[in-house]
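Protocol step 4 of 6: structure prediction from sequence.
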Amino acid sequence: MRYKSVERMKPIGKHSLLGASGEISDFQEILLYLNELILYDSMWDDGNSLGPKEVHNYLTRVMYNRRNKFNPLWNSLILGGVKNGNKYLGTVSMIGVNFKDNHVATGFGNHLAQPQAREKMQFNSLYRSFHGTISKNSIAKITEEGVTIHQPYSLKTYWEFSTFENPAQGAIGSW
């Protein structure tokens, strides 16, 4: 949230896109690890390249390894991609907890948005529920041909609702 102009999505190899929340410097370190991995893989010159499943497994091991050294990378990661017609979307937490699903989220959205998404709520309502910190958004598209990251854009917001002025009005009890 502090660095509003920093991109938190980066293409990884030919088939994957990585998105991160959390510490920027740790995300940069993860990108260094991944650049080294992609470079090592391309040096084989065998015509094959790492897909999103392999990159996700690698990130899981990196995050879990750093956790065990009591020096975690303070990021939650989302990795998506397409290779050979197979779509992939997975997430890894800062302690190495990971899963693959049709929809994923990081941070507090993982706790609140995931159950709603499983009940097939509209994305628009999920998005607006958790978008109170910054008004810039980025959208990326992943296809067999490659990854496209579009320029950040802002949504119009309206903060003049009376509920925003006194959110506890009408609440029974207090904290």
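Step 5 (inspection) to follow. The chain is about 35% helix and 25% strand.
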